[in-house]
Design goal:
The protein has strands spanning about 5-10, 15-20, 45-50, 55-60, 65-75, 75-140, 145-155, 160-175, 180-185, 190-195, 200-210. The chain is about 0% helix and about 70% strand.
Length: about 210
């Protein structure tokens, strides 16, 4: 598409940047696409920043140290990625992730939906408005989810060991797991499944929470 493409080396980093031409009435109708091919053996840090647009990241056979996404407005699709530290900060849009192995994953989204399948690692999510859905292959660390308005669904392994602390101000919370309960009603639930090794904290101001 139209615009400029800048590729430069700064120290031990490579910066790839694309910019629109000077603003005009037709600039928002222009379609631009940037494809970047990364060597499979690249294993360091990557930062992706998009003001408005769609990100499609296929990380098959790639193991990164740190991946940081800063998305102003747009959708994100990621498949098959292994990374030590994963960070996503988005203003609006939908996030779809298929297979993410990480030590720590942090998600911040102002408005939109987060759908994650085949996830492994610690999880921290802060969503202002939308739906948060995650299916975990392994529960091997803590989960912290804070949702202002929307719904939360957690699909956990049958043999998951966790201690649950869930709260909903307006809405309902439920769990299909048998819990050694410390107190349960439709607004809050505290209990343990298995050894209780991993902490799960879920807070929703308005919406529903379901664990299964």
């Amino acid at each position: 598409g139209k615009g400029s493409l800048i590729v430069k080396e700064t120290g031990n980093s490579i910066v790839v940047e694309t910019k629109r031409k000077m603003f005009n009435l037709f600039s928002f109708s222009e379609k631009r696409q940037l494809k970047i091919y990364i060597p499979k053996d690249f294993n360091r840090n990557m930062n992706i920043k998009i003001g408005s647009g769609f990100l499609n990241f296929s990380g098959k056979s790639m193991k990164l140290n740190d991946l940081s996404l800063d998305i102003g407005s747009g959708d994100v699709k990621i498949d098959h990625l292994e990374v030590n530290e994963f960070t996503h900060d988005g203003s609006s849009g939908n996030v779809e992730i298929d297979t993410l192995l990480t030590k720590t994953g942090t998600f911040e989204l102002s408005s939109g939906n987060l759908d994650i399948s085949h996830y492994s690692g610690a999880l921290n999510a802060d969503v202002s408005s939308g739906r948060f859905s995650v299916q975990m292959d392994k529960l091997n660390d803590s989960i912290d989810i804070d949702l202002s308005t929307g719904d939360v669904t957690l699909d956990l392994p049958e043999n998951a060991d966790f201690k649950l602390n869930g709260k909903v101000s307006s809405g309902n919370i439920s769990s299909d797991f048998p819990l050694t309960s410390n107190g349960t009603d439709n607004k809050s639930i505290q209990g343990t499944h298995g050894s209780g090794k991993n902490e799960i904290n879920v807070t929703v101001s308005s919406g529903d929470v379901k664990l299964f």
